[in-house]
Specification:
The chain is an alpha/beta fold.
Length: 105
């Protein structure tokens, strides 16, 4: 996972797993990014291959923390498999998912 600075927004790239084995590292980094920046916090999930309930909880918790600080959490590059999980859990109605322009056209 790495953070990339952009004017008015932060981008955090998550690795290939967001699960019980990785949340101890990912959660503090996401929360730290929320606390230390301004504008949107963009979480790039394009490399994500595995997410479980614990990982979903981290995203929801980070979303809430962002709202408390007047920021937005935006998911970018969500793989189809992960999008299905968000749809089944109805988190796609709570979390902001960036839609790629190529997919819209």
């Amino acid at each position: 996972m790495r953070a990339v600075g952009k004017p008015g927004a932060q981008v955090v790239v998550v690795g290939n797993r967001l699960d019980v084995g990785t949340v101890a590292v990912v959660r503090p980094r996401l929360h730290g990014a929320v606390d230390s920046g301004d504008g949107d916090l963009i979480v790039d999930l394009s490399g994500l291959e595995m997410i479980d309930a614990t990982g979903l909880g981290v995203l929801v918790g980070t979303h809430r923390r962002a709202l408390e600080t007047g920021r937005r959490l935006v998911l970018r590059g969500v793989p189809v498999r992960v999008m299905r999980v968000l749809a089944v859990t109805r988190l796609n109605r709570v979390l902001i998912v960036e839609v790629a322009m190529a997919a819209v056209a």
